[in-house]
Amino acid sequence: MNIPRTSKSFAVAPALAGFGCLVLLVGCSQQLSVEPGPAGSSAYCTALTQSLPVEIAGVLVRSTSAPKQGVTAWGDPAIVLRCGVVEPASLQPTSQLISVNGVDWLPEKLTQGQRFTSLNLTEFVEVNIPSDYESTSGVLVDLAAAFPTN
Question: How many Å separate Cα 94 from the centre of its chain?
Fold first, then answer.
């Protein structure tokens, strides 16, 4: 006697397909070469990079040359986060800072965008945002939940 079997693969297939597409998008994008910060392999930076969102400012995470060394990037042109960097040379007692959800940032104008370096975390973290992105504050807000404040 043939008993019809139901397949659970139909319910699982859409979820696997969606995950597969995300892996393909991240895996097939060109790997970005990024120099890690000197303390990028610290326990703090490792934990931080594991808690970062997959998407910020409407762009997805992409592959980098140093993913386990405190480096994460999103989009093209890439928004790049480096953990474990040195204190910014431009930091002065009179520097104007911005605070986003408990994290204090030193903004610096770059030729093609802006750099923000955190000042009140266990390690210095810098986020480089190309001028192609309209809202730098949106990027910092998207990242805020991943930053445990001291």
Answer: 29
pLDDT in tens, 14-31: 443 443 434 444 444 578
Give residue-wise pLDDT tens across range 54-89. 999 999 999 999 878 999 999 999 999 999 999 999
Domain ranges within the chain, ordered by starting residue: 31-88+96-144
Q: Cite the beta strand spans of the chain per DSSP E.
A: 55-56, 59-62, 71-74, 79-85, 98-100, 103-110, 113-118, 124-130
Give the C-alpha separation, 123 to 66, whole Å. 17
Q: How far apart are CA 48 and CA 134, in angstroms?
A: 25
Q: DSSP labels for 57-76?
A: TTEEEE-BS-TTTTEEEETT
CB 121 within 8 A of CB 75: no
Report the DSSP beta bridge partners of residue 37. none
pTM score of the predicted model: 0.78
Does residue 106 contact residue 136 with C-beta atoms inside 8 Å?
Answer: no
Question: Going edge to edge, which strands form the sheet with 55-56?
Answer: 55-56, 59-62, 71-74, 79-85, 124-130, 113-118, 103-110, 98-100
